[in-house]
């Protein structure tokens, strides 16, 4: 089993915390419709929970899912894994960016996959 390390300083002193991903669009809509800043802040802080990692040594923060996908796509775990991850991410983009999308979650996954594909060159 591999030990997680900081992508910035390679320290193994890492902790994580589940945090809400946020909903900026919902917060803006709530603020405009209700003119209530407190309600907008509550809506903006809501959303699906994601793991947010941080390094106790250098203070870097990152989303492990993003880092894992980027490392796999860069070929750090071999060409087979690299090909599998690229295929999965491309399928996610295709599924979530067509004319008919079955859910907002599918669209968000497509945006995430495209962001990872854009960051890591082929």
Keywords:
122 residues; alpha+beta; N-terminal domain of TfIIb; 3-stranded antiparallel sheet; 5 helices; 52% helix; flat
3D structure, described in words:
The protein has five helices and three strands, in the order E-H-H-E-E-H-H-H. It folds into two domains: 1-62, N-terminal domain of TfIIb (Single Sheet), CATH 2.20.25; 64-122. The radius of gyration is 17 Å and the shape is flat. The longest helix is centred in the C-terminal third of the chain and has 18 residues, at 79-96. Strand 2 (49-55) and strand 3 (61-62) form a beta hairpin. The mean pLDDT is 80. It has a three-stranded antiparallel β-sheet with strand order 1-2-3. It has 122 residues and is α+β, with helices and mostly antiparallel strands.
Short précis:
It is built from five helices and three strands, in the order βααββααα. The protein has 122 residues and is of the alpha+beta class. A three-stranded antiparallel β-sheet has the order 1-2-3.
The string of secondary-structure elements, in order, is EHHEEHHH
* Number of beta strands: 3
Mean pLDDT: 80
Work out the strand percent.
5-15%
Q: Given this structure, which CATH class of the largest domain is correct?
A: Mainly Beta
The radius of gyration computed from the alpha-carbon positions, rounded to a whole number of angstroms, is: 17 Å
Q: In percent, how helical is the residue content? A: 40-55%
Query: What do we call the CATH topology of the largest domain?
Result: N-terminal domain of TfIIb
Strand order of the largest sheet: 1-2-3
Q: Tally the structural domains.
A: 2
What is the overall number of helices? Answer: 5
Largest sheet: 3 strands, antiparallel
């Amino acid at each position: 089993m591999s030990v997680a390390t900081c992508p910035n300083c390679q320290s193994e002193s890492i902790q994580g915390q589940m945090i809400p991903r946020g909903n900026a669009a919902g917060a803006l809509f709530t603020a405009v419709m209700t003119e209530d800043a407190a309600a907008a802040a509550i809506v903006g802080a809501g959303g699906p929970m994601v793991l947010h990692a941080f390094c106790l040594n250098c203070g870097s923060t990152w989303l492990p899912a993003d880092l894992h996908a980027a490392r796999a796509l860069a070929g750090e775990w071999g060409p087979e894994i690299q090909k599998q991850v690229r295929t999965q991410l491309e399928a996610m983009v295709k599924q979530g960016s067509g004319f008919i999308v079955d859910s907002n979650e599918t669209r968000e996954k497509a945006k995430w996959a495209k962001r990872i594909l854009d960051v890591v060159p082929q």
